[in-house]
Amino acid sequence: MKNYKVLFNTLVAHGRNTGRETASSFSNQNSTYKSSPGFYITGETYQGKNGYSLKLEGLERGINDNAFERGIVIHGAEYVSDAFVNMQGYIGRSQGCPAVPVAVSKPIINTIKNGSCLFIYHPSYIDKSAILN
Hints:
Elements: E1 38-48, E2 51-58, H1 67-70, E3 73-77, H2 82-88, E4 99-101, H3 102-112, E5 117-120
Parallel strand pairs: 3-4
Antiparallel strand pairs: 1-2, 1-5, 2-3
């Protein structure tokens, strides 16, 4: 941000129950497999079932503050790719995580880990945010 330069422009998956081709339904509850919009602070990295991953802390009560407990993290996924889009018509879906292509997951995670502000946007979120209102 300091240099006003976009470092990464890539596909990002949303949760499988958030919507088929576009995100339309969100949740802050466990086991919904839905994404949560809003502001997050990035945490530490770890090696998990989805490989190299980045913990997220949701900052907005009732919108995304259960993200850590839900296991919502940034991770790479094979289903987030142009090849998957060509096969299915849209990218695959996560269990609620913002999943990115495997090829860029490590550089993205290493760039934003440990205290960056992450924002996940959807038009329906704007009126609900205590941070923005």
